[in-house]
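Example record

One chain of 409 residues, shown exactly as stored in the release files.
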Amino acid sequence: MNTINLAVIAHVDAGKSTLIDAMLNQSGVFEEHSERIDLVMDSNELERERGITIYSKNCSIRYKDYTFNIVDTPGHADFSSEVERIMKTVDTVVLLVDAAEGPMPQTRYVLKKSLEHGLRPILLINKFDKRDQRAETVVDLSFDLFDDLGASDDQLDFPILYGVAKEGIVRYDMDDDNEDLVPLFETIIQHVPPFQAQEGELLMQISSLAYDDYIGRLGIGRLLRGSLKPKQEVMIANERHEPYKAKINQVFRYIGLTRTSVELVEAGDIVLISGIDQISIGDTIGPASGVEALPSIPIEPPTLAMDFYVNNSPFAGQAGKYLTTRHIRERLMRELETNVGLTVEPIPGSDAYEVSGRGELHLSILIEQMRREGYELSVSKPRVLYKEVDGKLLEPYSKVRIEAPDEYI
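Predicted structure tokens for this chain:
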């Protein structure tokens, strides 16, 4: 069985999760699970309410004699650090661009990261059934974006497909009559050579984290060479700490939508491992005899901070059940198990904590999750984090694009 790992990337609301729904449906995964749920990859309650992907997620499908490991990525800039780490685990990306809107700010970011990692994207112009679609113009704009971001000649020679993700349709040309996703599956196979494992012993780098209430922290990454099995002794290395030995408890991979415990995984697969409580992003896993740490995976620094402290209003204790500083601290520490874009620092001389994240959405998602879980807390207004470089005080900035009719320019 050949394995291809791919990520679906796009600006927010371009149809990533909808496309993956269609891929799961047409590959028979929903038949195995009996009940079909729309936007199944957006499984978090807040994701469904807001209509966005907040956390990257994995699944796998089978097509002919291929296994596609698919990663659904966040489209909002506040969660862009997840996108960057995912690029180390995949062979290609499917770049979705709205046929009416064209490339948007986050399109630029996710495409830039994929090009920097040497990936050759597949361009899918989605929603070509819109009345205001301008697919041909969007293709030209996308090509200009590739060129502007310094794509190589090989990367500029990208396949172009047209789709309506909500209908499960992808075509080589808008005028043909295809009604399924076969053109997408075939393009992936033709565009991406199957993974060729390196010679040598076990090598894997952790690119993401998950948490399970029963088995603890899970490290997720691509197995670059060798094989991995439960109860195997390994060496963990990182540029930030001394190497140490550990034993893997369980090994998992995704089969369809299900995280499944397996007895053996081979190089090329995306793997989840349990049993190493202190495992972290960027850790290199090798044989117990020793391993040299791979270059660390950069994590985007926070840009915004808020203070979290106990609810001291007259209505304290009326809406939640977790009220104390200890409760808030324990919850924030648990969030750090998987939310690597977040930092939490105690504020000297007080019971408050400074919580820093990538933006307002990043922090507001955490606050709303805590509220729904029964935590009562007070928060300060957000403040921008500055940094000093060569004696100059710098602040974060954003690129803004304004589109307006010609008569108003």
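Notes: The domain at 2-191 is CATH 3.40.50.300 (Rossmann fold).
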